[in-house]
From TrEMBL:
GO terms for cellular component: autophagosome; late endosome; lysosome. One of its GO terms (molecular function) is zinc ion binding. The keyword Metal-binding applies. It is found in: Cytoplasmic vesicle, Autophagosome; Lysosome. It comes from Grantiella picta. The gene is Rufy4_0. GO terms for biological process: autophagy; cellular response to interleukin-4; plus-end-directed vesicle transport along microtubule; positive regulation of autophagosome maturation; positive regulation of transport; vacuole organization. This is RUN and FYVE domain-containing protein 4. Pfam families: RUN. Keywords: Autophagy, Coiled coil, Cytoplasmic vesicle, Lysosome, Metal-binding, Zinc, Zinc-finger. Residues 3-133 form the RUN domain. Its main location: cytoplasm. The keyword Metal-binding applies.
Length: 133
């Protein structure tokens, strides 16, 4: 199993975060706080009309104060529960929402790249992750 001490884990998480932030449009909340991929994930999963346990878990953690911290915790939760590919796929279903959140260079806006990314993430479902949440 992959644990918190794994170098590969840190590299994987950094690459996932880079991918989710690449060509992300700058958006701000009503109070001026910069939105990040966490906000994109929340919005995308909320459209599915079912509460995602990962979102609920992360929002219940009082220590997490920033969107980036919440996003990282969500990625870890999804890896442990083998839900990363499925959760991201649900967020990527709505092309209009993707255009609202990402500029044209984002690989999520290319159907071919999106399929490649999701295919690779589904392969991670075979890996066991033992991470501190």
């Amino acid at each position: 199993p992959v644990t918190d001490g794994s170098r590969e884990l840190h590299s994987l998480c950094a690459q996932l975060e880079f991918l989710l932030q690449f060509d992300l449009k700058e958006k701000r909340s009503f109070f001026g706080q910069r939105k990040d991929y966490w906000d994109f994930l929340c919005q995308g999963l909320a459209r599915c009309r079912q509460e995602h346990k990962g979102i609920h878990f992360v929002t219940s953690l009082d220590k997490l104060k920033t969107p980036v911290g919440r996003g990282r915790a969500f990625l870890r939760y999804c890896l442990v529960h083998r839900q990363l590919a499925e959760s991201l796929q649900l967020c990527l279903l709505d092309a209009e929402s993707l255009c609202e959140w990402y500029y044209a260079r984002s690989p999520f806006l290319s159907p071919k790249r999106r399929a490649e990314i999701l295919g690779t993430l589904y392969e991670l479902d075979c890996v066991t992750f033992h991470l501190a949440l």
